[in-house]
Amino acid sequence: MIKKAHIFCDDIKFHNDGKFVATIDGKCGVYTDAGNNLIECKYDTIIAISKLYTLAKLGDECVVYKNSNYEEVNRFKFDSYTLSNANFLFSTQGKYILLTDKNYDVPPTLYDSVESHKKDLYVVKSDNKYGVLSSDGKVLIPPTLDQLDKTKLGRRWQLCKSGDKYIMVYNNRTMTLPEYN
After folding, report:
1. Beta strands of 87-181 (E only): which ranges?
2. Spatial distance between the Cα atoms of 85 and 174, rounded to a whole number of angstroms
3. How far apart are CA 62 and CA 47, in angstroms?
4. Residue 80: left if φ>0, alpha if ψ -120 to 50, beta else—which one?
5. Which of 45, 54, 42 has its CA nearest to residue 17?
6. For residue 2, what is the DSSP state?
7. How many whole angstroms separate alpha carbon 139 and alpha carbon 167?
8. How many CB atoms lie within 10 A of CB 127?
9. Residue 72 is inside which H or E element, if any?
10. 175 vs 147: CA distance, rounded Å
11. Backbone torsions φ then ψ of 170, nearest 5 degrees
């Protein structure tokens, strides 16, 4: 005998893989189509940020859940967030956190600034040093550069200067150029 569960809710939205977000008394949770509760119904907002992860917001706190087992994999506080090139950019106490599909389950790195560049790269600044991240959050150049020369060499090219050395970023790879004129 199959027993069906009934959930009385204010709103219901498809989440992913047969799961849905139910809003009950203004709070959100994730349920299976059989009515099993996967993420407690206590959050202000729940967003399927990828096929692998779900982001739940409660006040100024963000919790990231892995969709395979709905276990918590990351938690941090933030002031606001924006969507940047299909990635989330969180602001917390004047610092920034970039979350991509590749780094939702690692401790977040705080940057003084994060700037999207041509949808391929992010230029980050930390302690007055510049660095470059790929669009999926991979650190191509850690924030160790004294200055960043954003010379446009082509669609996917970026030229960075550190002291008297230049570093070229192309297609998410880096190469140090001993001399550049």
Report:
1. 87-92, 95-99, 113-117, 121-126, 129-134, 139-145, 147-151, 157-162, 165-170, 173-177
2. 21
3. 11
4. beta
5. 54
6. P
7. 14
8. 8
9. strand 71-77
10. 17
11. -140, 125
CA distance 142 to 42: 38
Residue 86, helix vs strand vs coil: coil
Per-residue pLDDT of 56-69, as tens digits, reads 999 988 898 988 88
Is residue 80 within 8 Å of residue 91, measured between CB atoms? yes
With residue 57 as reference, give the H or E element that holds it.
strand 53-58
Angle at 21 between CA 16 and CA 25, to 5 degrees: 180
Alpha-carbon span 120 to 118, nearest angstrom: 5
Tokens of 103: 């780094």
CA atoms within 13 A on the CB side of 87: 25
Q: Over the stretch 90-138, which tens digit does the pLDDT of each residue have? A: 788 788 888 776 666 566 788 898 887 766 678 888 999 888 887 777 7
